[in-house]
TrEMBL record:
It comes from Halococcus saccharolyticus DSM 5350. Pfam families: Thy1. Belongs to the thymidylate synthase ThyX family. The gene is thyX. It catalyses: dUMP + (6R)-5,10-methylene-5,6,7,8-tetrahydrofolate + NADPH + H(+) = dTMP + (6S)-5,6,7,8-tetrahydrofolate + NADP(+). FAD binds at residues 88-90, 192-194, 198. This is Flavin-dependent thymidylate synthase.
């Protein structure tokens, strides 16, 4: 998979701090410089003041100000299974590549056998991989070779059947019914910084599936570049705790 930051609110932590200061400020923040707005916050520099205020907001559970900055991510090549999990989050906006208007008629089924178009779960190739809800532990090499053979044969033949149905004049929207849930999809999604922390609480957690965890870690890395003080605090003090942004 590939995850990129497409667009995001400029200077998101200035927006967060200004919104939070508005709540306790008699003067109108719209008439003040940022330095004036932050004047009573502890710290020698504006950066220090921002760090202190953001840490305090997150520590006290004052999450509203984190709803103002928004980021848009482009995601390439996750499974439709992962997409189904991700799109359960109702305060995230999505655009999903259509299987009604995009036909995978050019894909060579032999490339599918080699891993194209359908996501290969690690348990199909790694004997030591132990998935959640899996009966027993790792398996021997021979078993995993069998697993991989069954998996590859199944996804290849699905794509062959799909293309055969297209050749027989079936519309992509109906032919897609034979494609596996592991079929890759591209997504654009937008959310605010609070929601990003909430999605991470749920989807970077140990009980989430490996694919959405990997995706969430990718999004978190990008969020750390975009909104550094917030996600540094989140990683250090909040991540892996019981979800608390949406009690
Ligand atoms: C490990 C794991 C396993 C899961 N297994 C299943 C499963 O087997 N079957 C299944 O169906 N789902 C499953 N889910 C999905 C899960 O139940 C949620 O639907 C999904 O994660 C969306 O998160 P959310 O409920 O926090 O809502 P979001 O849409 O992310 O909303 C964020 C918060 O807003 C508030 N909110 C939003 N809408 C409402 C509303 N209508 N009413 C009240 N409050 C609201 C809630 O506080 C919510 O936490 C699983 C999720 C995880 C992480």
């Amino acid at each position: 998979m590939d995850v990129r930051l497409l667009e995001a609110t400029d200077d998101p932590e200035r927006v967060i701090c200004t919104a939070a200061r508005n709540d306790y400020s008699a003067p109108f923040v719209g008439d003040q410089s940022f330095a004036e707005t932050m004047a009573t916050i502890d710290g020698q520099t504006i950066e220090e003041k921002k760090r202190n205020l953001i840490g305090r907001l997150l520590d006290h559970g004052h999450f509203g100000p984190f709803e103002h900055p928004q980021a848009t991510f482009a995601i390439e090549g996750v499974s439709r299974s992962c997409m189904a999990q991700l799109t359960r989050h109702r305060h995230v906006s999505f655009d999903v590549q259509s299987m009604r208007y995009v036909a995978f008629d050019e894909v060579d089924p032999e490339d599918v056998r080699d891993g194209a178009m359908v996501v290969t779960p690690p348990s199909a190739t790694d004997p030591d991989w132990v998935g959640r809800n899996q009966r027993g532990g790792g398996v021997d090499e021979e078993t995993v070779e069998q697993r991989e053979a069954v998996f590859r044969e199944s996804v290849t033949s699905s794509v062959e059947s799909y293309q055969e149905l297209l050749d027989l004049g079936m519309a992509p929207e109906d032919a897609r019914f034979v494609l596996p849930i592991g079929t890759e999809v591209n997504i654009v999604m937008s959310m605010n910084a609070r929601m990003l922390m909430h999605v991470s609480d749920m989807r970077a957690a140990a009980d989430a599936q490996w694919e959405i965890r990997e995706l969430t870690e990718g999004v978190l890395d990008l969020a750390g570049d975009w909104c550094p003080l917030t996600f540094e605090y989140y990683e250090e003090h909040m991540k892996d705790r019981k979800n608390r942004l949406a009690p």
